[in-house]
Amino acid sequence: MLSESDLKLLDALQTGPRTSWSVLGRTLGVGATTAARRWDALVARGEAWLTAYPGGELVAQMALAFLEIDCAPGEALRVARVLAADPHVATVEYLAGHCDLHVHLVAPTLRAISDYAVHRLATLPGVVSARTVVSPRLFTEGSRWRVRAISPDQREALAAPVTRPSSPLRFGELDHTLILALGEDARISAAALAQRLGVGASTVLRRLDALVSRGAVRLRCEIARPLSPAPVTAMLWLRVPPDKLETTARSLAMLPEVRMCAAISGAANLMLVVWLNTQHDTIPLESSLAAKLPWLEIVDRAVTLRGVKLMGHLLDDAGLAAGRVPLDFWALVKTRECS
Questions:
Q1: 3-state secondary structure of 129
Q2: Tens of pLDDT along 299-328?
Q3: How far apart are the first and last CA of the chain?
Q4: Which residues of the chain form beta strands (DSSP E)?
Q5: How far apart are CA 104 and CA 310, in angstroms?
Q6: Which of 142, 195, 219, 237 could form a disulfide with 300 if both were Cys (CB 3.0 to 4.6 A apart)?
């Protein structure tokens, strides 16, 4: 486990990822230099990191799918590492469940999802079988999850306002490049971004404010799962009456354990990803869900044995950050065979 002061710093950065060190330090009662130095140490050890990726109305315009992959004996982790190198693959996990690997795939269109499944995945050595489950709606995802180490007053002081869009977002190549740059360094200054992108600082600030305030780009402070207060990842596949899907998903999304809640195609119509203190906590969680939402049926369940990639960051055998693959969901899908 990390120290309480480190957990508070991470919680503060989850709330305000681009908040200045002076404001972060003042809110936490430490100096700006101390806060920055502690953060740099966490990053250097692979224990925490920041990332950025499309969200809100941008990701709603894309296609999201979950790949359930079975591999030949001894091949699962090799296949996982190959897939983790792809820019459309956000997350790769090795499971104890109905499949060996669970992959989060994001692409511009359903046709691109199909191309990936047919031309990339099906030709990959070591893959025995694969199923593609499409998600028509993402109700919540990991940028909402909090360590819960700071007070409500501290959280309020750090939280950035989110605006309700009054008109469609005008998304262009500059925004695309901006999101990729933030994925590399989510705290990069506007001046450095302007120099890197070859545009004026005022233009960068205007586009950055538009993307962040609307939730069109998600900035996430992540903690290595073995060091998290909730180090165990579990997945539940749920069946809910169609007329209760929306309200049920919104209720589930508010639970502190929930990292992701997504509508899916198939026998189950909701998928839930939760972070728990131990694997034994799945039993009381399921009991609580059955009591509060009696119309909900648990169709299947799984536990993550090892994370290989988490929202663009590659993980080593200890679950620490060990590299990064840019999440360029707009890129062309690879269609050649890979070895």
A1: strand
A2: 999 999 999 999 999 999 999 999 999 999
A3: 38
A4: 48-54, 63-71, 89-96, 101-107, 127-135, 137-140, 217-223, 232-239, 258-263, 270-276, 297-310, 313-315, 321-324
A5: 9
A6: 237
* Assigned token pair, 57: 């109305």
User: How many CA within 13 A on the CB side of residue 144?
Assistant: 19
Residue partners of 232: CB distance under 8 A and separation at least 6: 275, 276, 277, 278, 279, 281, 303, 304
Q: For residue range 255-273, what is the model confidence (pLDDT) as tens digits? A: 999 999 999 998 999 999 9
Angle among Cα 176, 115, 139 to the nearest 5 degrees reads 60
Dihedral of alpha carbons 120, 130, 111, 253, sign:
negative
**Which residue in 32, 11, 278 sits closest to 145, CA to CA?**
11
Q: What residue has token string 């009381």?
A: 284
Closest by Cα among 135, 158, 144 to 263: 135
> Diameter of the chain by CA atoms?
56
Q: pLDDT tens digit string along 128-139?
A: 999 999 999 999
pLDDT at 338 (0 to 100):
42
| Residue 77 to residue 74: CA distance in whole angstroms | 8
Residue 339 binned pLDDT confidence (cut-offs 50, 70, 90): very low
> If DSSP codes are grouped into helix, strand and coil, which group holds residue 58?
helix
Residues 6 or more apart whose Cβ sits within 8 Å of residue 222: 48, 49, 50, 51, 142, 310, 311, 313, 321
70-79, 271-280, 303-312, 326-335: least confidently modelled range = 326-335
